[in-house]
Amino acid sequence: MPRNLQIALVCLSAAVLIGLISLHGLHNRIQTLEENQNTEEQARHELMAPEISTPSDVKAKAKLFWAAGPDRTAPIEMELTLSAEPAQRARQVLRALIESVPSPMLRTLPADASLLAFYILPDGTAIADFSDALALETPSGIMSEELAVDSIAKTLENNVPGLLRLKILIHGQEADTLAGHVDLTGFFDLGPTAQENQGAVSTPQNPAPAASPGAASPAAAGSAAKSPK
Amino acid sequence: MMTRNDDSNPSYDDRAALANAHRDAVFVSIHIASTGAVATARTYFYRFASSLPEVAGTDASAAPIPAAGGPVLWEEAQESYVEASKRFADILELELAQRFPGSAATPSPAAVRELRSVALPAVAVEISNIIATDARTWTTMAPPLATAIGRTVQAFRSAGAAGGD
User: Is residue B151 in a domain?
Assistant: First the structure.
């Protein structure tokens, strides 16, 4: 074999070897970056939604309304640490509604959504300000958007006394619609335990797949019990 | 009269304005859902939230009361047509249930933004589901949907229920 060819082969082999080593390093670096990204995401969630606790917190059963079929929500009882102060209590139940879903099939609000602020006006109007993810990741459609609103409203009216109506904001602003259909320019009625006759269940009975935000699911709906003015 | 014939996207107010320019009409908004059982349909009519109880010390009589037939708040234009809309929705849902098995038997009240400023009997129909990518699913649903709407308009007219409440 000519000497030139031998030199070329050695150079090529060395280049391939260096390339493989670089590729391995690059792969490791990508993995590290992905891990860091997850950690940052967790940190961001923790920062945006710090632990909500007050001196009046006690362990109590809350009724959280998750999807229970193609066109309705149903309560599931869950023991939560709840404040006696209404606004704090509302923050606690809404946070649980997003973060403590027993099964992805029952989810009514996007996992990435977070409650940015919640306050109560003297006339009984509750103002709930959610992050953009609520509007961006709720499946677009009358049924699916009604399901999301219904879940929020029923959870509030069954766990926070004294609320008469609800206003939903997206990132501090009034939004025209939730995801293109359901009107957010008005208010939603919050009757005093209006849906109590449904009865709480500890576990859902054969729950049908719902409009899980972020998951393609063929079924979902809203029971349309609320509407703005 | 269609509020759009292409991929343009008129605002809710533009659509309402177009509808409100007509008398003795009904407004039907057709949607395709991203959820729900395939080949089913559901009808919605607008339901406004209740008014808050009067706060002590305020004079309710001081609030302006729109004269009958006079101007109404744009955001509440549908309010005086809610009952008519519900009657229209009742008939339409029955028609749809006959043609699309598995559909709900009764319409649902819902805060569909598009209906709010329409000063006519107004309903929204949502067809499920967008996951049906086969064009034949949609082409086969179109004729019965059109028939259901046509028959509903006819029945509604016959009942003389088109006006506001």
Answer: yes
pLDDT band per the 50, 70, 90 thresholds, residue A227: low
Decide if B34 touches A, using CB distance below 8 A. Answer: yes
Could you tell me which residue, A63 or B34, shows the higher pLDDT? A63
Whole-prediction pTM: 0.76
Of B37, B38, B112, the CB nearest to A142: B112
Q: Is residue B122 part of a domain?
A: yes
Residue B31 forms part of a structural domain:
yes
Distance from CA of B146 to the nearest CA of A (A): 20
Distances (CA, A) of B85 to A67, A171, B81, B149, B161: 28, 33, 6, 13, 9
**A156-191 per-residue burial string, b: 16 or more CB within 10 A, e: under 16:** bbbbbeebbbbbbbbeeeebebbbbbbbbbbbbbbb
Over residues B6-12, mean pLDDT: 89
Establish if B142 touches chain A: CB-CB under 8 angstroms: no
Q: Do B104 and A140 touch (CB under 8 A)?
A: no
Read off the tokens for B134. Answer: 């086969």
Q: Find the residue in A nearest to B79 (Cα).
A: A229
- The CATH number covering residue B83 comes to 3.40.630.40
Domain count, chain B: 1
Contact across the interface for A229 and B76, Cβ inside 8 Å: yes
* Highest mean pLDDT out of A21-25, A26-30, B65-69: A21-25
**Inter-chain touch B37–A219, beta carbons under 8 Å:** yes
For residue range B51-100, list pLDDT tens digits in order.
Answer: 766 555 444 444 444 555 678 899 999 999 999 999 999 999 999 999 99
Domain extent for B84:
23-48+73-158
What are the backbone dihedrals phi and psi of residue B128, each rounded to the nearest 5 degrees, phi first? -105, 140
- Residue B50 Cα, gap to closest chain A Cα (Å): 7
B60 within some domain: no
